[in-house]
From TrEMBL, chain A:
Keywords: Amino-acid transport, Cell membrane, Membrane, Transmembrane, Transmembrane helix, Transport
Keyword Calcium (UniProt): no
Annotated organism of origin: Cryobacterium suzukii
Entry's transmembrane regions: 6-27, 34-54, 60-82, 94-114, 134-160, 189-209, 215-232, 239-260, 266-284
Pfam families: BPD_transp_2
A biological process from GO: amino acid transport
Topology in membrane: Multi-pass membrane protein
Protein known as: Branched-chain amino acid ABC transporter permease
Amino acid sequence: MQQLLTTSLAGLTLGMVYAAFALALVLIWRSTRIVNFAQAPMAMITTYIALLIVDAGIPYWIGFVAALLSGLVLGAIIERVFIRPVEGKPEMNAIILTLGLFVVINAVAAIVFGSHYRSFPVPFGLRGFEVGDVTVALTGFDVFSICSVVVVMMLLLALFRYTDVGLKMRASAFNQEVSRMLGVKVTGMLTLGWALAAVVGSLSGLLIAGGDLVYPSYMDSVVVYGFVAAVLGGLDSPVGAVIGGLLLGLGLSVVSGYVGSELVPLAALSILIVVLLVRPSGLFSHATARRV
Amino acid sequence: MTPPARSNHAGPVFEMSDVAVSFGGIHALSDVSLAVAPNHVLGVIGPNGAGKTTLFNVACGFVQPNTGTLHRSGALLTRLQPHQLAGLGISRTLQGLGLFDRMTVLENVMVGADRHAGAGFFSGLLGLPQSSKEEAALRGRATAVLNELHIEQYAARFPASLPYPIRKRVALARALASEPELLLLDEPASGLSSDEMSELGELIRGLVDRMAVMLVEHHMDLVMSVCDHIVVLDFGRVIASGGPNEIRENPAVLAAYLGNEVDDESARLARTGS
């Protein structure tokens, strides 16, 4: 019983982080039909920015906010400079491009920041809460992780549902030609979409790094898990991305807790293959997506 | 090149002069001139392949003419692009409707209601705080148009779940929501029953005190009953231009187009016995 609880709580926290990363992928997929593999190294860069700030003796929260803001800027720059030329071109171009960015950003980071392991701080304790004489496998940082992802999701939902900018972003994502004809500045909306996605990606980068080690390729496995979560939920559906992330986090946590942690990547890829074979459009495509 | 939103220009709202378009040696349009007067409905008719669609595409910037000029309220439009239409106070409907399937009817119309939808990346980002206020304004404008077209009961529905004539109305509502000075309608009657068509006719007539309309259409009944002025195309040339009565009696038109159409029409009337 204790182990089940521990496994579930760990899965929930990890699932929220995967959900955030999957959401970042889905936001970009919906608007530009591109799977942004470079999301992982982008989040790594912004985490390093936070680390540099914190290492300089500046409070964690300033580093945290700086990482999210630099994610916003980085997302916009990547879209404007690298993605714009391949928009509307064959899909393969964009895939190769984001994979290329993945490799290049990782290499540049290793040159600039060094490829050694550095520990990343946390703003809250890493000790589990104590209930009676039992220590629950839920730390202050876990609670913070879950809450921050939920807050970001709520903000995004509010943006898309209740603002005219969100309305125009959705219109641009659904049909660029028609949106343009109606006077929507589609290119601006796409840039904004990439920028916001990069903020969400940066958040997951910070949460993965918290209390752990950071090195240039520390996010590489997360892009795989985030991608599996996004496909599981349906690449088109933000709600699906969140649920897919949670399911994957729980599933992988069970595998890690009961079978063996070395099998986690294998389990993730098995899930990917099964989903692609059985329900390639994902569990929550369309029916759920249309309500968001 | 951008005229003021509500210009005081007294001449035509929209003018095409000596427009020619050819696709690889085939002359789709030759020396086509037309003018849409304020508060008038201009109809463009012609048999299949006469160049109606090309003409429409020139008017909304999808096709660049090889020669000739376009004017919007007297201002020259050089290399008109579709995304400039909204800023020029021009709205259009699409034959394929082009509705956003995963947005509600109301949201579809709200996107159209944003006449000054100029928010790019920075203004979009910086405008987020008051963006929900702007959204409420759009919602109000869109709701008013839905009421006007009597489709307010479908506001929360998704377009794909609605019958085609209603979807067509939604597309029209979206085009009207920006309060354009010029409305371009591409085959507005296609797929409508004759009752729906006469309703559409009344609706279009009801718009002319607010805007000018140009429609491309092959349903003669609608064109004859709705248009103040008609331009007839055949083989990419204007073969006649005038009021409905003039057109009806023009021998060139009868020969080129109406002949067949009138025969078809009388045959249909004979069949239905009306």
